[in-house]
Automatic annotation (TrEMBL):
GO terms for cellular component: outer membrane-bounded periplasmic space. GO terms for biological process: proteolysis; signal transduction. This is Peptidase. Residues 1-29 form the signal peptide. GO terms for molecular function: endopeptidase activity; serine-type peptidase activity. InterPro entries: ClpP/crotonase-like_dom_sf, PDZ_sf, Tail-specific_protease. It comes from Shewanella psychromarinicola. Residues 246-399 form the Tail specific protease domain. Keywords: Signal. PANTHER family: CARBOXY-TERMINAL PROCESSING PROTEASE CTPA, TAIL-SPECIFIC PROTEASE.
Length: 522
């Protein structure tokens, strides 16, 4: 997801994933008996109290809903498209779900697919270190319907996690969860069992998985115990020696605070090696801190290309043409940031000059899981004429951002701003699409290719990376690109503990479809 700092070198406000309604924030019902006094705020159609007068009144469900209503009316990008409903029949969580536009985009898709909330405690833990309860597996769903075609595959795992300790690697297929067949489950009880196993909510929960490892002829059974896993957002940095020069590669999974040091180290390594080209693997990067994307853009392009150029220009709703409604500061463009911010000073202090590769082009590997701040990085580089070559699938389509806002132990995320690059372009709500013959600005030169779960990430034989290396030498896609693109579509999804997505933690199999974070939100 994409986040905007209050000030570039101040602590940033960031956004992420997950829906976990707790305490008075979201679990309260529609009973508004605590608001019966004559002085209590009441709903009057078309009239909105200042949201600051309604905030943090956690014993009053109606007041919480009225706060959400006023806050949304003040800061939501499409506030005038929210239907002003009486909150009385709804609980807090239900009412928040209604406080968004129901309009469609020009292409017929829902305009807002990124409206969610989560427990503040969980958000603060996830935001600070990428830590959450799980097994360390990021998963991919192929075909949602029950039957032999439904398949859940491990896309990657986190180091030092229950999954990695059990030698579960990319490409492993999850056959059963606590004895329930993933392919065949079609009743609510079986579906609940699968979801409870795939997405544990408490540390210590044990789940029995039957797995078919990549290239294995037989299944094996493992028991995993859920634990708090800390994400490693930057992995697999390497230098690929080719006949025509050195190619840097890095896997960048999330724009979270701890990624700053990881990116600094990775780009320092690649800069010292004087790589000629760079492949950034953001296929599972759902976004996060916009300032990290700005830093990454600087480290790719360097001083000369970014000097006096805009990374992103943001705008809010028409009530605030010149002022940020959250910070109350004058709107100013975000530059390309050339130094560390110090999100975690124990890892990297602020003010350290960032390394740079000074490249004129970059190769990016994408899937529908590539979202928000990752898309902003692509857009910003294109805005300063760095050539972006896209290998993979169309990205999620989120040129929007928000400030996570806490009320009564729940943190809410509602779209508040949109962004454009230095050239003024930001219309990619249907995603960036790789194309061999781009005709519109949202089409990016490159090759449409399905994710290759049969090879490790960073393996030069892996389909997307192999295509990037081929394109680099031949300035065209490999001959297999079109055929692969027509393969059955995949719906990638994640264990939300390990990727900051604009998503929910309400992962349920319903009506024979696994509603994953990505599926719910995009």
């Amino acid at each position: 997801m994409k986040l905007l700092p209050r000030h570039i070198l101040a602590p940033l406000i960031i956004s992420a994933s997950l829906l976990l309604l707790t305490a008075c924030g979201g679990s309260s019902g529609g009973d508004d008996s605590t608001n019966t006094g004559s002085t209590s705020p009441q709903w009057v159609a078309g009239q909105f109290a200042d949201d600051s007068t309604l905030a943090n009144q956690c014993s009053a469900p109606l007041t919480q809903k009225l706060w959400l209503r006023s806050w949304s009316n003040d800061t939501y990008l499409w506030y005038n498209e929210i239907i002003d409903r009486d909150p009385a029949p709804y609980n807090v969580a239900e009412y928040f779900e209604l406080l968004k536009t129901e309009e469609l985009s020009d292409t017929g898709n829902l305009k807002d697919n990124f409206h969610f909330s989560m427990s503040t405690a969980e958000w603060e833990l996830l935001n600070g270190s990428g830590a959450s309860v799980g097994y360390g597996m990021t998963l991919n769903l192929r075909n949602a319907s029950a039957g032999i075609s439904r398949q859940v595959t491990v896309a990657y795992n986190e180091p030092n996690s229950p999954a990695s300790d059990a030698d579960i690697s990319r490409g492993a297929i999850i056959v059963t969860v606590d004895g329930v067949s993933v392919a065949d489950a079609n009743d609510s009880g079986s579906i609940d069992t699968i979801n409870a196993g795939l997405f544990p909510s408490t540390s210590g929960k044990q789940t029995v998985f039957t797995l078919r490892d990549l290239d294995a002829q037989t299944d094996r059974t493992v028991t995993l115990s859920a634990s708090t896993v800390v994400s490693t957002p930057v992995q697999n940095t390497k230098i690929i020696q080719t006949a025509s020069g050195k190619v840097g590669y890095l896997q960048f999974n999330a724009h979270i605070a701890t990624a700053e040091k990881g990116l600094y180290d990775a780009m320092t390594l690649l800069s010292n090696a004087q790589v000629d080209d760079l492949v950034v693997d953001i296929r599972y990067n759902g976004g996060g801190l916009l300032a990290l994307a700005s830093q990454m853009g600087y480290m790719i392009a360097g001083d000369n290309a970014t000097a006096n150029r805009v990374f992103e220009r943001t705008s809010f709703n028409d009530k605030y043409p010149t002022v940020n409604p959250v910070t109350r500061e004058a709107l100013t463009p975000m530059p390309f940031i050339p130094e560390s911010i110090g999100f975690n000073t124990s890892l990297l202090s602020s003010g350290v000059p960032l390394p740079s590769l000074n490249l004129k082009r970059v190769f990016v590997l994408t899937t529908p899981g590539t979202c928000s701040a990752s898309e902003a990085l692509m857009n910003a580089l294109r805005g300063i004429d760095v050539e972006v070559i896209q290998l993979g699938e169309t990205t999620c389509g989120k040129p929007y951002g928000f400030y996570p806002t806490n009320n009564c132990d729940t943190t809410y995320f509602t779209i508040q701003f949109k962004g454009v690059n230095d050239k003024g372009f930001g219309e990619y709500s249907d995603g960036f699409m790789p194309s061999t013959n781009p005709t519109v600005d949202s089409e990016v030169p490159g090759c449409e290719l399905a994710d290759d779960l049969g090879h490790a990430l960073g393996d030069t034989n892996e389909r997307l990376l192999s295509a990037a290396l081929f394109y680099r030498d031949n300035n065209r896609c490999p001959s297999t690109a079109t055929a692969v693109a027509r393969a059955p579509a995949q719906d990638p999804f994640v264990d939300p503990g390990f990727m900051l997505q604009d998503t929910r933690n309400q992962n349920v199999l319903k009506n024979n479809r696994i509603l994953t974070p990505l599926a719910l939100e995009q």
